[in-house]
């Protein structure tokens, strides 16, 4: 029976050691958690302050970007109107030039067309 009591003592003391280690680990974890709490709060505060500063600094930059975008939009609209007017002028100019050319062509055609019936009459009179 010496062997069985040996194993009982061995496993019994191991069980007690494991329980003690678990308790120690739990206590250590609680201490670490308590010790880290102020640092966690400081980190949260720092993060919030940093976010607020970034917002504060970026706000004027965003406003300037919006202003520049609006100015660019106005400039584009202004030049678009001018371009539209110029294109309209060019189209009118082309229409006028085309109209003048068409009128000249009609005049040339009417000057070169001759009445063939009169020539035939003159030739019959000569005979």
TrEMBL record:
Native source species: Flavobacterium potami
Domain of life from the UniProt record: Bacteria
Protein name: YtxH domain-containing protein
């Amino acid at each position: 029976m010496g062997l069985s009591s040996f194993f009982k003592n061995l496993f019994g003391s191991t069980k007690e050691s494991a329980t003690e280690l678990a308790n120690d680990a739990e206590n250590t974890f609680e201490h670490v958690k308590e010790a880290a709490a102020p640092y966690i709060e400081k980190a949260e505060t720092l993060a919030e302050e940093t976010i607020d500063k970034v917002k504060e600094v970026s706000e004027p930059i965003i406003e300037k970007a919006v202003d520049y975008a609006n100015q660019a939009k106005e400039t584009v609209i202004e030049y678009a109107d001018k371009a539209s007017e110029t294109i309209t002028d060019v189209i009118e100019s082309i229409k006028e030039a085309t109209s003048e050319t068409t009128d000249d062509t009609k005049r040339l055609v009417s000057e070169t067309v001759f009445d063939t019936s009169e020539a035939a009459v003159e030739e019959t009179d000569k005979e």
